[in-house]
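Data card: per-record layout.
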Amino acid sequence: MPRSRARKPVPFNTYIRQRNHRRWSLWLSATVVVAVLAILDRRGAFLYDGGDTHRYDGRSLRVVRVIDGDTLVVDAPDADRRDTHVRLWGIDTPETAKPDRNLPTEPYADDATDMTRSLCEHQTVTLHLEASRIRDKFDRLLAHVELPDHTALAEHLLAAGLARADDRWPHRDLERFALIEQQAKMDGSGLWATDPAPDEKKQPTNPVTP
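The structure for this 210-residue chain is written out next.
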């Protein structure tokens, strides 16, 4: 029977380097795993305590600022920010001016912003999340916003013709939003009016960025 070869002893310095390399590799692997899990959690991949669903779904929060018709800010910390930016689920309102891209305010954008501001700014609203999609590409929280009177903010904007139903992703109110939008079209409200919006009439042909 052949005799097994004795393992050649490893020099002490080499052993220390190998041990430190293994420790560093394990630390790096653990760090990467934790980072990936944190990102997946922020994106709604996990529905456990401590994730976005636990922190926001069904929670009542104060609206500290309205950015535009479909985006607002609530008083809850979000990662390294002291507040959370919320994007309304299932609708899209006209865009306000983007001076950095030389884009003017779209017709009815100011009306949509004013309506959202009048309905919820400095008031307490309740957020409802969809498990299928928690954040958008800008890392804003996606939520249905319930007003103090228990009506949906998105529905007010749709009924006034100040928002379009967004069906790019399925959500619980998809059919209802489509019906409300259809009624606004039939009524000729807001975006669906036959005459140009006042904002559109006043829009300069070649807006100049200040």
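Known properties of this structure: The CA atoms of residues 24 and 30 lie 10 Å apart. The longest strand covers residues 60-68.

See the next section for split statistics.
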